[in-house]
Write a structure and sequence with these properties.
The complex is a heterodimer of chains A (165) and B (85).
Chain A: H1 8-11, E1 14-17, E2 26-31, H2 34-40, E3 44-49, H3 52-62, E4 68-69, E5 72-74, E6 93-97, E7 106-111, H4 116-122, E8 129-134, H5 137-148, E9 156-157
Chain B: H1 3-16, H2 25-31, H3 39-49, H4 54-64, H5 73-76, E1 78-79
The chains are: A alpha+beta (165), B mainly alpha (85).
Amino acid sequence: MIDLSAPLQDWMPTAWYGGYLSGLPDLCVGRWPDAIARAHGQRWKAWIVTNATETKRLTAALAQPVPRKGPALDFAAGPDAAVRKPVRQADDFVALYAPPAEGWPWITLVSLTLSPAAAAELGAARGRYTWDADDTEAAALDRIARLRSMTPGAPVHLPDRSAGH
Amino acid sequence: MTGDELRDARRRLGEMWGLGRPLRMSEMGRALRLQGRDPGATVRDWERKDAISGPVSVAVDLMLAGTMPPDPIEAIVLYESGSAT
Protein backbone atom coordinates (compact mmCIF):
# COMPACT_ATOMS: atom_id res chain seq x y z
CA MET A 1 0.00 0.00 0.00
CA ILE A 2 1.48 3.33 -1.07
CA ASP A 3 1.50 6.13 1.47
CA LEU A 4 0.47 9.14 -0.60
CA SER A 5 1.07 11.42 2.38
CA ALA A 6 4.79 10.64 2.21
CA PRO A 7 7.18 12.89 0.27
CA LEU A 8 6.46 12.62 -3.43
CA GLN A 9 9.85 11.10 -4.25
CA ASP A 10 9.00 8.17 -1.94
CA TRP A 11 6.09 7.02 -4.11
CA MET A 12 6.77 8.52 -7.53
CA PRO A 13 10.14 7.52 -8.99
CA THR A 14 11.54 10.19 -11.26
CA ALA A 15 14.19 10.40 -13.96
CA TRP A 16 15.81 13.44 -15.49
CA TYR A 17 16.14 13.83 -19.23
CA GLY A 18 18.72 16.46 -20.13
CA GLY A 19 18.13 19.00 -22.87
CA TYR A 20 20.84 17.92 -25.29
CA LEU A 21 20.82 21.03 -27.48
CA SER A 22 20.76 24.70 -26.68
CA GLY A 23 17.12 25.77 -26.31
CA LEU A 24 15.85 22.33 -25.32
CA PRO A 25 14.52 22.21 -21.77
CA ASP A 26 15.31 19.45 -19.31
CA LEU A 27 12.50 17.06 -18.48
CA CYS A 28 11.77 15.46 -15.16
CA VAL A 29 9.58 12.40 -15.73
CA GLY A 30 7.71 10.64 -12.94
CA ARG A 31 6.08 7.23 -12.93
CA TRP A 32 2.55 7.27 -11.52
CA PRO A 33 1.57 4.56 -9.02
CA ASP A 34 -0.53 1.85 -10.64
CA ALA A 35 -3.88 2.98 -9.21
CA ILE A 36 -3.45 6.53 -10.49
CA ALA A 37 -2.03 5.38 -13.82
CA ARG A 38 -4.99 3.07 -14.34
CA ALA A 39 -7.56 5.74 -13.48
CA HIS A 40 -5.93 8.43 -15.61
CA GLY A 41 -4.76 6.27 -18.51
CA GLN A 42 -1.27 7.80 -18.13
CA ARG A 43 1.77 6.02 -16.74
CA TRP A 44 3.98 9.08 -16.78
CA LYS A 45 3.99 12.67 -15.63
CA ALA A 46 6.46 15.18 -17.04
CA TRP A 47 7.70 18.53 -15.78
CA ILE A 48 9.41 20.85 -18.26
CA VAL A 49 12.34 22.60 -16.66
CA THR A 50 14.01 25.57 -18.34
CA ASN A 51 16.70 26.73 -15.91
CA ALA A 52 18.73 25.90 -12.81
CA THR A 53 16.42 27.81 -10.47
CA GLU A 54 13.47 25.72 -11.60
CA THR A 55 15.54 22.56 -11.19
CA LYS A 56 16.24 23.53 -7.60
CA ARG A 57 12.59 24.38 -6.91
CA LEU A 58 11.27 21.19 -8.46
CA THR A 59 13.84 19.04 -6.66
CA ALA A 60 12.77 20.63 -3.37
CA ALA A 61 9.10 20.04 -4.17
CA LEU A 62 9.73 16.37 -4.97
CA ALA A 63 11.19 15.98 -1.48
CA GLN A 64 7.94 17.24 0.09
CA PRO A 65 4.51 15.63 0.42
CA VAL A 66 2.08 16.81 -2.26
CA PRO A 67 -0.31 19.40 -0.78
CA ARG A 68 -3.94 18.38 -0.31
CA LYS A 69 -7.07 20.04 -1.57
CA GLY A 70 -9.78 18.30 0.41
CA PRO A 71 -9.13 14.58 -0.02
CA ALA A 72 -7.30 15.06 -3.33
CA LEU A 73 -3.65 15.54 -4.23
CA ASP A 74 -2.98 19.08 -5.38
CA PHE A 75 -0.01 18.88 -7.73
CA ALA A 76 -0.84 22.36 -9.04
CA ALA A 77 -0.02 23.86 -5.64
CA GLY A 78 2.97 21.54 -5.17
CA PRO A 79 5.55 20.42 -7.71
CA ASP A 80 3.70 21.84 -10.73
CA ALA A 81 4.01 25.32 -9.21
CA ALA A 82 7.81 25.07 -9.46
CA VAL A 83 7.64 25.02 -13.25
CA ARG A 84 4.36 26.70 -14.10
CA LYS A 85 5.47 30.08 -15.46
CA PRO A 86 4.53 30.39 -19.15
CA VAL A 87 7.51 30.23 -21.51
CA ARG A 88 7.09 33.10 -23.97
CA GLN A 89 10.46 33.13 -25.71
CA ALA A 90 11.29 29.75 -27.18
CA ASP A 91 11.71 28.14 -30.56
CA ASP A 92 9.18 25.87 -32.19
CA PHE A 93 10.47 22.32 -32.48
CA VAL A 94 9.77 18.63 -32.12
CA ALA A 95 12.40 16.90 -29.98
CA LEU A 96 12.93 13.29 -29.07
CA TYR A 97 14.48 12.49 -25.68
CA ALA A 98 16.07 9.09 -25.12
CA PRO A 99 15.42 7.28 -21.85
CA PRO A 100 18.20 7.90 -19.33
CA ALA A 101 17.90 4.36 -17.98
CA GLU A 102 16.16 1.09 -18.75
CA GLY A 103 12.48 1.04 -17.93
CA TRP A 104 11.89 4.70 -18.76
CA PRO A 105 10.05 5.90 -21.87
CA TRP A 106 11.12 7.78 -24.96
CA ILE A 107 9.65 11.27 -24.74
CA THR A 108 8.56 13.36 -27.69
CA LEU A 109 8.36 17.02 -26.77
CA VAL A 110 6.61 19.50 -29.05
CA SER A 111 7.21 23.22 -28.56
CA LEU A 112 4.85 25.50 -30.48
CA THR A 113 3.94 29.16 -30.31
CA LEU A 114 0.29 29.07 -29.28
CA SER A 115 -2.39 31.55 -28.34
CA PRO A 116 -3.48 31.23 -24.70
CA ALA A 117 -6.79 29.76 -25.89
CA ALA A 118 -5.06 27.17 -28.07
CA ALA A 119 -2.65 26.28 -25.26
CA ALA A 120 -5.57 25.72 -22.90
CA GLU A 121 -7.44 23.68 -25.50
CA LEU A 122 -4.40 21.45 -26.03
CA GLY A 123 -3.57 21.29 -22.34
CA ALA A 124 -0.13 22.60 -23.27
CA ALA A 125 2.31 22.91 -20.40
CA ARG A 126 3.73 26.36 -19.79
CA GLY A 127 1.70 27.76 -22.64
CA ARG A 128 3.59 25.93 -25.42
CA TYR A 129 4.72 22.36 -24.67
CA THR A 130 3.00 19.06 -25.26
CA TRP A 131 4.61 15.69 -24.78
CA ASP A 132 4.01 12.00 -25.32
CA ALA A 133 5.72 8.91 -23.99
CA ASP A 134 6.50 5.76 -25.95
CA ASP A 135 8.00 2.48 -24.83
CA THR A 136 10.23 2.10 -27.88
CA GLU A 137 12.26 4.33 -30.13
CA ALA A 138 10.43 2.95 -33.17
CA ALA A 139 7.07 3.96 -31.73
CA ALA A 140 8.41 7.42 -30.91
CA LEU A 141 9.82 7.88 -34.42
CA ASP A 142 6.52 6.78 -35.89
CA ARG A 143 4.76 9.37 -33.72
CA ILE A 144 7.20 12.06 -34.88
CA ALA A 145 6.57 11.14 -38.51
CA ARG A 146 2.85 11.67 -37.93
CA LEU A 147 3.47 14.91 -36.03
CA ARG A 148 5.48 16.42 -38.86
CA SER A 149 2.38 16.96 -40.96
CA MET A 150 0.84 18.91 -38.07
CA THR A 151 3.94 20.96 -37.30
CA PRO A 152 5.23 22.08 -40.70
CA GLY A 153 8.34 24.20 -40.42
CA ALA A 154 9.23 23.09 -36.92
CA PRO A 155 12.66 21.41 -36.89
CA VAL A 156 12.92 17.89 -35.54
CA HIS A 157 15.71 17.24 -33.04
CA LEU A 158 16.91 13.71 -32.41
CA PRO A 159 19.38 12.65 -29.72
CA ASP A 160 22.94 11.83 -30.73
CA ARG A 161 22.95 8.04 -31.09
CA SER A 162 26.71 7.95 -30.61
CA ALA A 163 26.26 9.36 -27.09
CA GLY A 164 25.45 5.93 -25.73
CA HIS A 165 21.65 5.64 -26.12
CA MET B 1 -31.36 6.40 -14.21
CA THR B 2 -31.80 9.56 -16.28
CA GLY B 3 -29.25 12.15 -17.30
CA ASP B 4 -30.58 14.56 -14.69
CA GLU B 5 -30.26 11.88 -12.02
CA LEU B 6 -26.65 11.19 -13.01
CA ARG B 7 -25.91 14.93 -12.88
CA ASP B 8 -27.45 15.07 -9.42
CA ALA B 9 -25.40 12.01 -8.41
CA ARG B 10 -22.21 13.87 -9.38
CA ARG B 11 -23.28 16.75 -7.16
CA ARG B 12 -24.05 14.51 -4.20
CA LEU B 13 -20.90 12.40 -4.55
CA GLY B 14 -18.76 15.54 -4.67
CA GLU B 15 -20.23 16.57 -1.34
CA MET B 16 -20.04 13.07 0.15
CA TRP B 17 -16.36 12.72 -0.77
CA GLY B 18 -15.45 16.09 0.72
CA LEU B 19 -14.66 17.95 -2.49
CA GLY B 20 -17.00 20.84 -1.75
CA ARG B 21 -18.17 20.83 -5.36
CA PRO B 22 -19.83 18.43 -7.79
CA LEU B 23 -17.75 15.58 -9.13
CA ARG B 24 -16.55 16.53 -12.59
CA MET B 25 -17.56 14.36 -15.53
CA SER B 26 -13.97 13.15 -15.95
CA GLU B 27 -13.85 12.22 -12.27
CA MET B 28 -17.12 10.32 -12.49
CA GLY B 29 -15.68 8.51 -15.51
CA ARG B 30 -12.58 7.55 -13.58
CA ALA B 31 -14.63 6.44 -10.56
CA LEU B 32 -16.44 4.10 -12.96
CA ARG B 33 -13.11 3.02 -14.53
CA LEU B 34 -14.06 4.22 -18.00
CA GLN B 35 -11.10 3.97 -20.33
CA GLY B 36 -9.55 6.48 -22.68
CA ARG B 37 -7.97 9.89 -22.44
CA ASP B 38 -11.27 11.62 -21.76
CA PRO B 39 -13.56 9.42 -19.70
CA GLY B 40 -15.65 12.52 -19.07
CA ALA B 41 -16.78 12.53 -22.70
CA THR B 42 -18.69 9.30 -22.15
CA VAL B 43 -20.37 10.68 -19.03
CA ARG B 44 -21.28 13.82 -20.98
CA ASP B 45 -22.91 11.64 -23.63
CA TRP B 46 -24.87 9.69 -21.04
CA GLU B 47 -26.20 12.85 -19.43
CA ARG B 48 -27.17 14.43 -22.74
CA LYS B 49 -28.82 11.37 -24.21
CA ASP B 50 -30.42 10.00 -21.05
CA ALA B 51 -28.66 6.76 -21.93
CA ILE B 52 -27.32 5.26 -18.73
CA SER B 53 -26.96 1.51 -18.68
CA GLY B 54 -28.21 -0.72 -15.89
CA PRO B 55 -24.74 -1.69 -14.59
CA VAL B 56 -23.66 1.97 -14.48
CA SER B 57 -26.77 2.99 -12.58
CA VAL B 58 -26.16 0.14 -10.11
CA ALA B 59 -22.56 1.31 -9.56
CA VAL B 60 -23.66 4.92 -9.09
CA ASP B 61 -26.43 3.92 -6.67
CA LEU B 62 -23.93 1.89 -4.65
CA MET B 63 -21.62 4.89 -4.40
CA LEU B 64 -24.54 7.09 -3.36
CA ALA B 65 -25.33 4.52 -0.66
CA GLY B 66 -21.82 4.95 0.73
CA THR B 67 -19.75 2.33 -1.06
CA MET B 68 -16.42 3.84 -2.01
CA PRO B 69 -15.06 3.17 -5.49
CA PRO B 70 -12.30 0.55 -5.67
CA ASP B 71 -9.66 3.12 -6.65
CA PRO B 72 -8.55 5.67 -4.04
CA ILE B 73 -9.99 9.17 -4.22
CA GLU B 74 -6.47 10.42 -4.95
CA ALA B 75 -6.52 8.42 -8.17
CA ILE B 76 -9.90 9.77 -9.20
CA VAL B 77 -9.48 13.43 -8.29
CA LEU B 78 -6.14 14.99 -9.12
CA TYR B 79 -5.34 18.67 -9.43
CA GLU B 80 -2.60 19.38 -11.94
CA SER B 81 -1.37 22.62 -13.41
CA GLY B 82 -3.11 23.43 -16.66
CA SER B 83 -5.77 20.79 -16.28
CA ALA B 84 -9.26 20.74 -14.89
CA THR B 85 -9.08 17.16 -13.83
